[in-house]
Specification:
There is one protein chain. With 599 residues, the chain is an alpha/beta fold. Among the domains are: 262 residues, Phosphatidylinositol (PI) phosphodiesterase (TIM Barrel), CATH 3.20.20.190; 135 residues, Sandwich (Immunoglobulin-like). The radius of gyration is 26 Å and the shape is globular. About 11% of the residues have low confidence. One of its GO terms (molecular function) is phosphatidylinositol-4,5-bisphosphate phospholipase C activity.
Amino acid sequence: MSKQTYSVCFCWRRRFKLALAEAPSEIKTLFEDYAENEIMTPSHLKRFLVEVQKQEKATEEEAQVIIDSFRHFHRRSVGLNLESFFKYLFSDDNPPLIPSRGVHHDMTLPLSHYFIYTGHNSYLTGNQLSSDCSDVPIINALKRGVRVIELDIWPNATKDNIDVLHGRTLTAPVELIRCLRSIKEHAFVASEYPVVITLEDHLTPDLQAKVAEMVTNTFGDILFTPNTESVKEFPSPESLKRRIIISTKPPKEYLEAKEKDKGDDSQQLKEKGDVSLRRKGSSEDEAWGKEVPSLKGGTIEDYKDNNEDEDLNDEEEFDESDKLPNNNEAPEYRRLIAIHAGKPKGGLEECLKVDPDKVRRLSLSEQQLEKAAINHGKQIVRFTQRNILRVYPKGTRIDSSNYNPLIGWMHGAQMVAFNMQGHGRSLWLMQGMFRANGGCGYVKKPEFLLETGPDNEVFDPKAKLPVKTILKVTVYMGEGWYYDFKHTHFDQYSPPDFYTRVGIAGVSSDTVMKKTRAIEDNWLPTWNETFEFPLTVPELALLRIEVHEYDMSEKDDFGGQTCIPIRELRSGIRAIPLYSQKGEKYASVKLLMRFEFID
């Protein structure tokens, strides 16, 4: 026990006791139930691992390894005492996901059977209007395990080379060749599974030919090129390990007239961006960002979304000037395309038609998907069973914010494209989903999104479903802020007042957030509070955990967050590491929690 002093004024100081972490009462009771003579031997620990932690395959040998690892906390080598037992439970050796499992989903199925970690405008360093373009955010995304990189390619100022930039904005360009070389260097640092480069092409045929040469020379043998232009089924991630895949529309004649027509849009975009940046300018400085948009319509809490109508021609896939191959195109560019993108003429019904002889990629904005889902939800699910659907942020997200990814995942969309350069709750959900399957960037979709019933029926995202399981969550305590933050970070005059928010992000009926009470003036808060969450679609649900510091006069301070895919969440008492707003793991901050599934 030590003391910490806070200066209130020149003549007055406040002193607070700093206690050591102590096992909560329930942990003490469990230790007493499983230990004998205040020692937990390998056989006792094995029984605890099986019965409480639900590790049915645990062995006495594994229990002995744990005991040996925490020998320095106890003198006797025959077992764990209460202190070492508590230290084990609250250590990195007891995480909520099994790190040793690595990649454990079946990776031999077609690409359309997986959710894929997907970036949007991957080259931007900040907002969509005026930030620099660079290969740095591409490198950062690949290091985090992102598997789909988007590049907008345009002629440079002299029309003799290719730049990457957000067209018709004030963004400063970066050379395409630099981006390609960085992708090659960092593509498989975090995962050996394939990287898809989606190209939004604004080039003349001669520059398309130059792109083909750049791509071929840069990637060489690791570039995957299909034997035929049309394929009946996408290859599997397993067959494409350490390969680069190109996805774009088949090339078309570059139309100067089209650019002239769209040129007037740049000023409108700038004006809209100026308004948006003024409106949201302070939001980037907020402690943790806005609440995730609700799938029910409206909000989960205080989220206010702009519902401006969005032009269907917002991205290249919806370009009315798409044409069949013509004599002016670059055939070598066309041969690079492994995943063909495009939109058939005839509206949404035609877009969602499934061709038994050909698979393709379709892109919809978040708003287009929301509107399509109202009357075509099952058609979207059926389309995504064989084809790839990419969802991207609406055009008014000038500040590089994101949307609720569940709108895409619940309809089977494989490529839910996010702005990776920012931070906020929506991005935390994305990071949480792709902690699954060893963090390889590919997560196999739940079977119900892939199955077709006897009457050719598919999953209905709007159907009211019964509760499959109840997740019971106990929040015991937290620690680590004293080491990872300055002592006056949360409060100038006293220790912090922490509380925890815990809840579910999932289908509408499962989505909820709850919170504990705030514990005053304590770096080691102990809550001992329990919550229950009924789940109708646990396969898509994410457990959301956030810690905040209560501030009576100002906005509450951020103290850490994490999102965990419930389909891979381990039962039992676990140590939960927390992450910063930007998704970086804290060195010491973590929570002790218990998870129980009640059928």
